[in-house]
Amino acid sequence: MRFEGKTCVVTGGANGIGKCIAEAFLREGARVAVIDKDEPAGKKMAQNHKKLLFMHGDAAEKETLEVFAQQVMDTFCKLDCLVNNACINNKGLLSGCSYEDFDHALRAGVVAPYYLALLFKESFTQGASIVNISSTRAVMSQPDTESYTAAKGGISALTHALCMSFSGRVRVNAISPGWIDTRAYQHKESHMPQHTEADARQHPCGRIGSSEDIANTVLYLCSTDAGFINGENISIDGGMTRRMIYHGDDGWSYDGS
Length: 257
Prior knowledge:
There is one protein chain. The chain has helices spanning 16-27, 39-48, 62-76, 99-119, 146-165, 197-201, 211-222; strands at 7-11, 31-36, 52-56, 79-84, 124-133, 170-177, 180-181, 209-210, 233-236. It is an alpha/beta fold. The longest helix has 21 residues, at 99-119.
């Protein structure tokens, strides 16, 4: 019960990695506030957890964030942990991602974390922690991923900037997940394909990542055990981004069609 009496906010916390993080905090005794666009999933979480405050809304919208922050303060009065998990993948150049679509992805993935830090600036407790969920896609890409990749690159840079501005009061770190299987934490049936043995062998750890891999590190970074970790971006990818893979390696082959 490391977080008994603590208040934690998780954006995009009704599904996937965000849901796993929110539930991990609850198991550790925290009071948790979640904002998410998936209203049915969020309401179900709130019904199952008495210490959870859920607000339905789009984290990309300024007014929504203001209402959410006020609800958190009215309910809990203080904030110990802020986890910026919400983001949108509006694809990119090859899909004709529009100005509005690209802007929406950046507002959800970069502007919202900054604005929440500003809204909660006076409410953070001494020694509070912010954890931004970035991605290994901040440093590596597939085609047609410009909106998501730009948002993740932005939040990685925002992390060390906020770390400096909050010096001596709030620690700010980021986590960059790699290939994570989130099916166990999806409200609706997931359409993610089953991974293969060749997929697992691409990772030096020998498996695909799980949502728990990310949640465990979030809780560590928010705990006093991580009191000297600040401004860091920790890749949690099973070593995949360290492995050079050529056609024919480890059961993987390139399909150029």
